[in-house]
Design goal:
The protein is of the alpha+beta class. The protein is built from three helices and five strands.
């Protein structure tokens, strides 16, 4: 199904999501951004990277034992010196609307540290 959506380029309306997600753009080469994602997941957030495929640009990680949260990072080269990262969180099936994820927010903040004011 995802293949069809990607092929047709069907975009969801802003503000509508089935799970917590955040997209950021880094002014870093792809390889450096990939390593930073893994470091952020393991060393900063305390997650476990279950699968990391650098050529495909995908990282799968889990957090917690009970009601665990899965985190997926998808990296895309924009230019030689910039990379787009889509950070998505997934929980088990629920009838409730998606809630914000502290892991998505924390990883995005780690990857994009605030720039000091001039």
């Amino acid at each position: 199904m995802k293949f069809l959506r990607d092929w047709l380029r069907v975009e969801r309306p802003l503000g509508v999501a089935t799970h917590a997600t955040q997209t950021i753009e880094l002014q870093q080469p792809y390889e450096q951004a990939f390593r930073a994602c893994i470091r952020g997941i393991e060393d900063v957030l305390g997650g476990a990277v279950r699968e990391a495929d650098e050529p495909r640009g995908s990282i799968e990680a889990t957090f917690g034992l009970v009601n665990s949260e899965r985190l997926t990072c998808t990296l895309q080269r924009i230019t030689e010196q910039s990379t787009r990262i889509i950070i998505e969180s997934r929980h088990g099936a629920s009838a409730q609307p998606a809630k914000p994820s502290q892991y998505v927010r924390a990883l995005a903040q780690f990857l994009q540290p605030a720039t000091p004011a001039e």
